[in-house]
Write a structure and sequence with these properties.
about 10% strand, about 180 residues, 2 domains, 4 strands, elongated, mainly alpha
Length: about 180
């Protein structure tokens, strides 16, 4: 049977809740005091049925999850002239984008001002004439325009990632 990834993700949530409910039932009915009466009819059979059900559900979960991951490795999306697998987009969203953000935040002209303030032990901005008089004009070791453009690209891309993944999840089909 073919279903969209969006449907498969809903099914994973459904399976997860079924597993949790069955485990709760097993916890409740898997043992009793020897002299007490069973809480439900055929309690031993019920517990075994719940155990088998959890194993079957967990296996179905695994199969669906593998099908989704395989699809995410095969399906691609484009942004800014670059092609990414859905798996790459998910990795970017789950944390790699923060590395790009931190990288470009490090290229801040305010770092030069901070360094100057520390070197003259002042916490107020220094005017240009004073900087030149003390020969402490900041020197930047990067192309600020290139850094600005790259930072903008990754920021905009970060805003679009959810849309690209969502589009894939509603169009890509997997076999379950």
């Amino acid at each position: 049977m073919m279903i969209s990834i969006a449907e498969a993700l809903k099914e994973l949530k459904n399976i997860d809740s079924k597993i949790e409910r069955r485990i709760a039932e097993i916890t409740r009915y898997c043992s009793k005091m020897r002299a007490s009466k069973d809480e439900i009819e055929n309690q031993d059979k019920h517990v075994e049925d719940m155990r088998k059900s959890v194993l079957d559900l967990a296996n179905n979960y695994r199969l669906i999850k593998v099908a989704i991951q395989k699809s995410n490795l095969e399906n691609k999306a484009e942004y800014g002239g670059n092609t990414y697998t859905i798996a790459e987009l998910i990795m970017l969203k789950q944390g790699i984008l923060k590395y790009y953000s931190n990288l470009y935040d490090a290229f801040s002209p305010s770092n030069a001002q901070r360094q100057i303030n520390e070197s003259v032990r002042r916490n107020v901005p220094i005017d240009k004439e004073s900087l030149e008089a003390f020969n402490i004009v900041p020197q930047l070791y990067y192309d600020s325009e290139r850094v600005r453009k790259e930072k903008e690209y990754w920021f905009e891309f970060g805003l679009k990632i959810d849309m690209l993944i969502d589009k894939n999840n509603h169009t890509a089909q997997i076999s379950v």
